[in-house]
From TrEMBL:
Keywords: Carboxypeptidase, Hydrolase, Protease. Its EC number is 3.4.16.4. SUPFAM superfamilies: beta-lactamase/transpeptidase-like. The keyword Cell inner membrane does not apply. This is D-alanyl-D-alanine carboxypeptidase. GO terms for molecular function: serine-type D-Ala-D-Ala carboxypeptidase activity. Pfam families: Peptidase_S13. Transmembrane segments: none annotated. InterPro entries: Beta-lactam/transpept-like (IPR012338), Peptidase_S13 (IPR000667). Belongs to the peptidase S13 family.
């Protein structure tokens, strides 16, 4: 009886191995197509419940991840930040409130429009702002300098306002948000939207849409912006090391911030989230400090330690392996209820950057973060099979010269095979 049972178990195991081998052969054959000859590709597909590696190809090699980096930023924020976004630190003495920036990106942001700081400051005769407690440079290491006037490359700062961009439109006349910069906007057919290191902005009169242009963040600009919303009572001071123990909280729930970052791949939010997370370690803000802390503590078990230099993935200095992404995605899946977790990710064919790709049959089967730079496209996240299994994957493509849409179509063949057959 025991021998018969043992033989049956051996048979079932061999059958399962044969089944997995067939899948691997299909994926291997697909990746062996001449389409992939002149690019670098890596793929890891993992079943977290059974701990089985479904498929592995160059999974331990380093790739340029682009915005897949935001998965690590999301993990950091979920580890370090509370359910409500911290807005700033402050202290009160008589009729003066001292406010210290901690990187909160939601203040007067065009999407979130949080006004916590403004509402509190209105109750005092004097407002003292401390804004120079950030160690980061205004741009991340390896960012492309020529992107200084593009919406996706705002400067980093300790107390952002308006998302650190000016929104310019032309209805009956040129308009700007913030209004304090309206006189700095000029009609021009220039290819650039702003002078290189000056808050002089240009709007092409042939346009009909609203454009967002990064502001040059300096003391002069911040004084002007604050004086516009709270005239005559705001002064800016240097950080003197004095500890402010009170914390005010934004009106924005943390998940709303995370979801916005992930769905539209917002670089500004990603960078500021790391700075904000660093405020839980020290009053001196540093995205490097929080990255090092997370890598050396919560993620010390990663099989390949990444080169992680920014929060957004704008830098080509970042280097991550598919294995590292799968490890972090598995941690998230273990720690966060699935419904909440999937709500933070773009859904294939339904939301965010995946609205037009990886369409499911009646409902999404892919919940994942894309990452795109010139000649690089990656996708890492979760795949739901028709049999109800949840797979974790990271599919990374570097250095191709073909259209990115063609790369996505090839990837979709593999995703659909896994969905239908695993």
């Amino acid at each position: 009886m025991l021998r018969a049972l043992k033989n049956k178990l051996i048979y079932l195991c061999l059958l399962a191995l044969l089944f997995l081998s067939c899948k691997s052969n299909y994926i291997s054959k697909n990746l062996g197509n001449s389409f992939y000859n002149n690019q670098f590709t890596g793929l890891l597909v993992y079943h977290p419940k059974t701990k089985d590696t479904v498929f592995k190809y160059n999974a331990d090699k380093y790739f340029t991840p682009a915005s897949n980096t935001k998965i690590f930023t999301l993990y950091t924020a979920l580890q370090m930040l509370p359910a409500q976004i911290p807005a700033f630190k402050y202290g009160v003495e008589n009729d003066t409130i001292t406010i210290q920036g901690i990187g909160n990106p939601t203040f007067l942001h065009p999407f979130f429009n949080d006004s916590t700081a403004l509402k509190m400051a209105k109750n005092y005769k004097n407002v003292n702002l401390i804004l120079n407690n950030l160690e980061d440079e205004k741009f991340g290491p390896g960012w492309a300098w020529e992107d200084y006037d593009t919406y996706f490359s705002p400067e980093k700062s300790s107390f952002p306002m308006y998302g650190n961009v000016v929104a310019i439109s032309n209805q009956d006349s040129l308009q700007s948000i913030p209004k304090a910069l309206k006189n700095h906007v000029h009609f021009s057919e220039s290819n650039k939207r702003r002078q290189f290191n000056d808050n002089t902005f240009y709007y092409n009169p042939k346009r009909k849409d609203t454009i967002e242009v990064p502001m040059v963040i300096d003391t002069l600009l911040l004084s002007r912006l604050w004086d516009d919303v709270l005239p005559g009572i705001v002064s800016i001071s240097k950080y003197d090391g004095k500890k402010l123990d009170k914390i005010a909280y934004s009106s924005v729930p943390s998940d709303s911030l995370y979801k916005r970052m992930m769905l539209v791949s917002d670089n500004f939010l990603a960078e500021q989230m790391l700075i904000l997370a660093s405020s839980t370690l020290s009053d001196t803000l540093s995205s490097k400090r929080i990255r090092d802390t997370i890598l050396n503590k919560q993620l010390k078990d990663l099989k390949q330690k990444p080169r992680w230099v920014d929060g957004s993935g704008l830098s080509r200095y970042n280097l991550f392996t598919p294995t590292s992404f799968v490890q972090v995605l598995e941690k998230l899946h273990n720690q966060i209820p699935q419904q909440r977790l999937f709500n933070l990710f773009p859904a294939g064919g339904a939301s965010g950057t995946l609205t037009n790709y990886y369409l499911g049959e009646g409902k999404p089967y892919i919940y994942a973060k894309s990452g795109t730079l010139g000649n690089n496209y990656s996708l890492s996240g979760y795949l739901i099979t028709n049999s109800g299994k949840t797979l974790v994957f990271s599919f990374m493509n570097n250095h191709y010269r073909k259209p990115t849409t063609d790369v996505k179509k090839r990837m979709q063949l593999i995703f659909e095979w896994l969905r239908d057959n695993y």
